[in-house]
Amino acid sequence: MQEVLMTKAAIDVQHLFKTYRVPERQPGLKSAVRSMLRRTYREVEAVRDISFSVGPGEMVGFIGPNGAGKTTTLKILSGLMHPTQGNVNVLGYVPWRRQHGYLRKISMVLGNKSQMLWDIPPMDSFNVLGEIYSVPPDVLRQTLDALIDLLDMESLLNKPVRNFSLGERMKCELVAGLLHQPQVLFLDEPTLGLDVSMQSRLRTFLKEYNKRSGVTVILTSHYMADVVALCARVILIHQGQLLYDGALSGLAEKLAPFKLVHINLGSEHGIDEALATFPEGIELIEREQDRLTIRVPKILAAAVTAQILSKMAVVDLTVEDPPIEAVIDQIYQNSEVLQTSPAGV
Description:
By secondary structure, the chain is of the alpha/beta class. The chain has helices at residues 29-37, 70-77, 100-103, 122-132, 137-151, 166-178, 196-213, 224-230, 251-255, 271-276, 301-311, 324-333, 336-339; strands at 11-24, 40-54, 59-63, 85-90, 106-110, 184-188, 216-220, 233-238, 241-247, 258-265, 283-288, 291-297, 314-320. A 6-stranded mixed beta sheet has the order 5-6-7-3-8-9, sandwiched between helices. It has a 4-stranded antiparallel beta sheet with strand order 11-12-10-13, covered by helices on one side.
């Protein structure tokens, strides 16, 4: 009898750790021979004490730089890997037990991996996958019709996959991953390598499919446009640690160490003299005639704004958080920005 643990969250992760034992040796023939007799290892913590939960039907962006631990976490959640320590519950199942009931309820789509056979049309692969997942023929036909219609791929069904463009193959991968109607979908770089137009169309499809089916989605992507378009909530990890879990709209406000101040002046007279009096740490980002954009440390924003209003002939002034892409780039380059910031909101 299969053991199923009931939980309100579709995905619940508590104190997850994953440590790899990696062999290492010095270069050279002697070291190579020595390593055959006596290996030395070092431990690499890929995931360190991560906890989060995802509700049914949520679409959550799971972001971080290369090597942050995103793919390792997804592999644990999908049952491809055992954790070193911690508890994970997905739809009431422990993923790494690989129970049949669990595998029928999840799907994982990788942007750089293919499950389609290149020498046959995609419809043949879809029918084989339907048999593997024991999808009744009438349900399979109905599901395929809906997915094919959403993705506008009727013309692709009878052509060999090897003749498809990258975007067309990605459409097929999504259908293959969704034809058994999973309740949880793990998406790893689904728009990798696609042109701007195809990226936009796939985002539209994923948003519409989530709305229709209520599938729970965890999305990893280095394209912030994917996350912004699809996910109201993001989980940010870096060096294996969870650094932020909360609303995408609050990421810049909470974690960016600076503000952008846009100034529209009546004239260019006295601009250089005024800028010279600003405190250290103020950076001029853009200047176009009498319009300026400066970057100001968050703690100085109020004081600098007051100084601008008192020393310059200001027509208009706006203070705003930086674009999300700039915040993420700052975090990836300098994780110390976050070390004193609590995860979550």
